[in-house]
Amino acid sequence: MIRGDAMVNLKEILSDIARAIVDHPDDVVVTEEEKGDEVTLTLGVHADDMGMVIGRHGRIAKAIRSVMKSVAGTCGKKVNVEIKD
Prior knowledge:
Elements: H1 10-21, E1 29-35, E2 38-44, H2 50-54, H3 59-74, E3 78-84
């Protein structure tokens, strides 16, 4: 089991996922707020890329959140991913 922030950087993982699916990867911004074992990541992307990140009926956003929760679980954290309009 992986433990600690040294092994898993949630902010970097979310940033890498977002950059892989958008047309403007340089405009991807992820901010992190940590309170105990809970982490809130806020994802900001270029306005033209918002649809790519959310997907039809929110499917891409749900998939991103699912992956991030799985990764966070490996280091004993809870993650909440918010997408900034």
